[in-house]
């Protein structure tokens, strides 16, 4: 979404972010993604409370079904069990929904929680509760993290808390559903701790457009001088100081040479293909019956997760990836279960399995923690309209990597998948697990200057014991 413009004598022409980045912004600073990761690890040693680890939260907006994903309940009556059947996983006796064969093949690298419950069945309150881990400040977990770790990475300048929507991948996805308000709340923290949103668009990003002459675009050193000069000019005029935090972060992304992390053209054709979910679109019959079905197409989901991996490598500590469309009530213009899962679960399968294999092959399984969840689950029985309704008594939850104990199922649901049959996992447990992954808690307790309420939230909980 961040672009530059170049000037010609007769006209201005827009240069895409991809084309601009090929001019070598990242290389100007001598920074490559592997190098950034090493620098990040070194920087973490200056603050021993901060681990060299990142978290990706894949948020299935609308409330993902537990039955058609990670708890199919095929022994239950037909009106309850997964409509997609089941598929065996690499864990003996454990099955997932029938349209998740790729993820099933990676189950030994996952920890699936089947007893997560918070009891909230209203979209907004549930979504914000989950992202905050139910903490009393109301701030989403990424905001808590950046309040302690800092707004930007002190080595690379990359924002530490970023939200990735489909619009971050391609401006042509502008008509796809986008709702970041429910996953980016700052609660009682200052508004500056909201996630950096590269897809926000509008005046903010238009103001970040730089006017550069064509000959300067051909000279890497000249380009760097232009950027430095622009920053000095803004500082002198006071405009940079007056800009809001988003603008400052956006400027740093450009001027400090880390915008290459947002450019997927640096990936191989094989990697791009492995993550590609562009074929996951609703059929014509569904779109004719449901006028807004197309806006929930998960066509960008795979590349959103690929971008998230790149951002983690470049020094971002907390990335939220949004995947909307899981609100499958059925009836009228609403998604039925068969409508929604026909596109969303195959996209989830391809994107998540690609990410799991990718981070494993790149040796990042300990450095990146993936958390998959949504605001709530769905009702056990399929309703008369062919859908499932809101259900806060049992919610899908999966952990991957992050140095945690993988290859297990934690907790059990009851026979109809409606509530925990074992001690429930709470949102506070999820929060504590994430914070223990990001921070050395004993060291953090020695750090001064952290607001007392933030410190209590981060250090006061106990992580899920099976994972540690």
Describe the structure.
The protein is of the alpha/beta class. The protein folds into two domains: about 1-30 and about 200-255, no CATH class; about 30-200 and about 265-465, 3-Layer(aba) Sandwich (Alkaline Phosphatase, subunit A), CATH 3.40.720. It has 18 helices and 14 strands. It has helices at about 15-20, 25-30, 35-45, 100-105, 125-130, 140-150, 200-205, 215, 220-235, 240, 245-255, 270-275, 285-290, 300-315, 335-360, 425-440, 440-445, 450-460; strands spanning about 5, 10-15, 55-60, 85-90, 95, 110-115, 160-165, 210-215, 320-325, 370-375, 375-380, 390, 395-400, 410. The strands form four sheets. A seven-stranded mixed beta sheet has the order 7-9-3-10-13-6-14, with helices on both faces. A three-stranded mixed beta sheet has the order 2-1-8. A two-stranded antiparallel ribbon has the order 4-5.
